[in-house]
Amino acid sequence: MGAGRPDRGGGEARGPAKRPNLPVDAPRFVAFQVIRAVSDNDAYANLALPGLLRERQLSGLDAAFATELTYGTLRSLGTLDRIIDRNVDREPDSAVRDALRMGAYQLLYTRVPPHAAVDTTVTLVRETVNDGAAKFANAIMRRVSEHTLEDWLATVAPDAAENPAGNLAARTAHPEWIVRAFTDALGKDAAEITELLEADNVRPPVHLAARPGRITQEELMAESGGSAGQWSPYAVTLAGGDPGALSSIHKGRSHVQDEGSQLVATAVVNVPVQGQDDRWLDLCAGPGGKAGLLGAFGAERGADVLAVEVTEHRAELVAKATRGLPVYVKHADGRTVGHDPDLVEQGFDRVLVDAPCTGLGALRRRPEARWRRMPSDLPPLTKLQRELLAAAVRAVRVGGIVGYVTCSPHVTETRMTVMETLRKSKIPLELLDAREFMPAGMPGLGDGPTVQLWPHRHGTDAMFLALLRRVG
Ligand SMILES: C[S@@+](CC[C@H](N)C(=O)[O-])C[C@H]1O[C@@H](n2cnc3c(N)ncnc32)[C@H](O)[C@@H]1O
């Protein structure tokens, strides 16, 4: 936590100036509005924040401060709540709790001076709730300000010897069940788990994918001012700026995509197949990132991609993302292979199943996601993943390839789903060593045959890849 620890709003004596008609300065007010929308309307911060920044015309340091307050507060929610709960004798209403969370975040995780954090929190509560609530907020904020984060953690975190996962969870602001799930997937090296959890608390750089045959990596670097990605031969890491302003994106020559997603999609098209290789299927295509890459490869190699997506709106996004490429979008349930005239059994040479999942591998992008996800999300998702993988196996021809991908490292969604499919499938399958289709020399890929990428090892989202060949 504390990446970039801003002193904005506090390095200066009084913080950002208050604008007319706003209860507090615009960056804090924007952050508060986003946090409220996340709490009350299940909004996604990464979608809600950009619009509000534009509406309030915030840029530069003000936008950076609003972003850090929003992301930092939402990421640390569970730990902030433990500390707040130590100091309240009654449940604060939702708006007051959100203001306290944001105030406590400033006190404990940033260099904002305590008086600025306390005063702006109290003003925010007075102006958006009432005087009584402001008095209450003032008392809580003063108590929180009496100790450092380290002191509070010593008080609220479970004992490290008795419950190491619980202690780490509080220290790195993750739910304990997620720490345990990551430990299952990564192994019990406590130092490495800590590295992973800390990597989750840092916003990732923006990566672009240079669509093969449309623009080279070098040309995209020159256009964007970015540098070559670490692993994918198509990746460009942006130094900053708005990718939406790039002409290559508008012209369908590049798109925004994590390097891990680029690697797994590239692997799926690079496994050799004998014979026909021009019918590709993307069974879970929305919003179309991997379909964009598959379509560009397909254009180079004379293959068509059928992109299936069950949600109408997301199917429209796929169509938009793949304009000009040989990608045909179908709004359908991917499990209907064998029952839909377009989804013929054995009708495809390569099938990608980028399955709906908990998204635990992309927590660094979605600050609130870790607190929203529940272990109870797993059983229905796992069932759907297994059904989609079984459908993909029916769709691929003998000798063809199925790539099973998740942006979660949870073993139930990854290795267990694959092993269960291999065990139960009446269609004979061979599990390939997916490491062979990762960039040469890429370290930290484990013992195979599946591949698990990690933010702290590879700088990518924690993408999982299994490659299966149909052999009968
Ligand atoms: C992890 S996302 C895919 C991301 C996409 N491949 C990309 O790179 O942009 C999973 C997608 O599967 C879709 N989905 C869920 N259930 C489905 C089903 N039964 N059939 C087809 N698509 C489904 C979800 O709506 C979601 O858009």
TrEMBL record:
Residues 182-471 form the SAM-dependent MTase RsmB/NOP-type domain. InterPro entries: MeTrfase_RsmB-F_NOP2_cat, MeTrfase_RsmB-F_NOP2_dom, NusB-like_sf, NusB_RsmB_TIM44, RCMT, RsmB/NOL1/NOP2-like_CS, SAM-dependent_MTases_sf. Its EC number is 2.1.1.176. GO terms for biological process: regulation of DNA-templated transcription; RNA methylation. Residues 1-21 are annotated as: Disordered. The active site is at 407 (nucleophile). Keywords: Methyltransferase, RNA-binding, S-adenosyl-L-methionine, Transferase. Residues 1-11 have a biased composition (Basic and acidic residues). One of its GO terms (molecular function) is RNA methyltransferase activity. S-adenosyl-L-methionine binds at residues 284-290, 309, 333, 354. May act as RNA methyltransferase. Belongs to the class I-like SAM-binding methyltransferase superfamily. RsmB/NOP family. This is 16S rRNA (Cytosine967-C5)-methyltransferase. It comes from Longispora fulva.
